[in-house]
From TrEMBL:
<dbReference type="InterPro" id="IPR020672">
    <property type="entry name" value="Ribose5P_isomerase_typA_subgr"/>
</dbReference>
<dbReference type="Pfam" id="PF06026">
    <property type="entry name" value="Rib_5-P_isom_A"/>
</dbReference>
<protein>
    <recommendedName>
        <fullName>Ribose-5-phosphate isomerase A</fullName>
        <ecNumber>5.3.1.6</ecNumber>
    </recommendedName>
</protein>
<feature type="binding site">
    <location>
        <position position="123"/>
    </location>
    <ligand>
        <name>substrate</name>
    </ligand>
</feature>
<comment type="subunit">
    <text>Homodimer.</text>
</comment>
<comment type="pathway">
    <text>Carbohydrate degradation; pentose phosphate pathway; D-ribose 5-phosphate from D-ribulose 5-phosphate (non-oxidative stage): step 1/1.</text>
</comment>
<dbReference type="InterPro" id="IPR037171">
    <property type="entry name" value="NagB/RpiA_transferase-like"/>
</dbReference>
<keyword id="KW-0413">Isomerase</keyword>
<dbReference type="InterPro" id="IPR004788">
    <property type="entry name" value="Ribose5P_isomerase_type_A"/>
</dbReference>
<dbReference type="GO" id="GO:0004751">
    <property type="term" value="F:ribose-5-phosphate isomerase activity"/>
</dbReference>
<feature type="binding site">
    <location>
        <begin position="28"/>
        <end position="31"/>
    </location>
    <ligand>
        <name>substrate</name>
    </ligand>
</feature>
<comment type="similarity">
    <text>Belongs to the ribose 5-phosphate isomerase family.</text>
</comment>
<feature type="binding site">
    <location>
        <begin position="83"/>
        <end position="86"/>
    </location>
    <ligand>
        <name>substrate</name>
    </ligand>
</feature>
<feature type="binding site">
    <location>
        <begin position="96"/>
        <end position="99"/>
    </location>
    <ligand>
        <name>substrate</name>
    </ligand>
</feature>
<dbReference type="InterPro" id="IPR050262">
    <property type="entry name" value="Ribose-5P_isomerase"/>
</dbReference>
<comment type="function">
    <text>Catalyzes the reversible conversion of ribose-5-phosphate to ribulose 5-phosphate.</text>
</comment>
<dbReference type="GO" id="GO:0009052">
    <property type="term" value="P:pentose-phosphate shunt, non-oxidative branch"/>
</dbReference>
Amino acid sequence: MSIQDFKRAAAEAALAHVEPGMKLGLGTGSTAAIFVELLGQKVEQGLDVVGVPTSEATRELAERFGVPLTTMKDEPELDLTIDGADEVDPQLRLIKGGGGALLREKIVACASKRMIVIADESKRVERLGKFPLPIEVVPFGKESTLRAIAKLALRLGLEGEVVLRRSEDGCPVVTDSGHVILDGHFHRIDDPEGLAAALVSLPGVVEHGLFLGLASLAIIAGENGVSTIEPTQFQQSPRRIA
Ligand SMILES: O=C[C@H](O)[C@H](O)[C@H](O)COP(=O)(O)O
């Protein structure tokens, strides 16, 4: 079985949590894309749901697969968000934003009663940080913001560089909301909560890819089948609004 098969297995398992009439947050990335495709098949068979896409890419996919869409303006509270992740730790803390969609993903997850993460087993880690942490910043003063984040990281005992994300043509990657992404190559993040709080205190930082206390369930598929991670002591994020 390939990673692609595992992603599909996780996406299929997540479908069981979707109920008629639900307002869904639709994640971004290759795993979420499979979920959107499968959801489109269910809609074709008569399932009545609406979705809010977390990126323009997901909007296009949902339109292609016939998933009815709505907006945060019309549906500010959602029932369930299904999204992928770049890393998932045993406490169900996540790194997200490898595809640059972290800001809308976090807004949508916070507006949802539940967030289910779907991933292949390569995303499961004991400690967050091997995957570079995406940090979305405003373009104005991005060089200063980068230096401020690097200094902050040093102060927190994190080693590694902070790098402006560029696309293949060398230009900075610009997010759907018009910001740029700095990737923090920290290798290991021992205190995600401390880092998260420190990052949002910096001017210029819009959002970071640490999703803490947001996921209610992770569905992970691998060689040994599908398994789940649930928070042992689920604490609702103070930022969750639904
Ligand atoms: O910005 C992108 C998202 O956070 C994705 O959910 C994440 O990068 C995982 O994507 P994939 O399922 O393609 O590994």
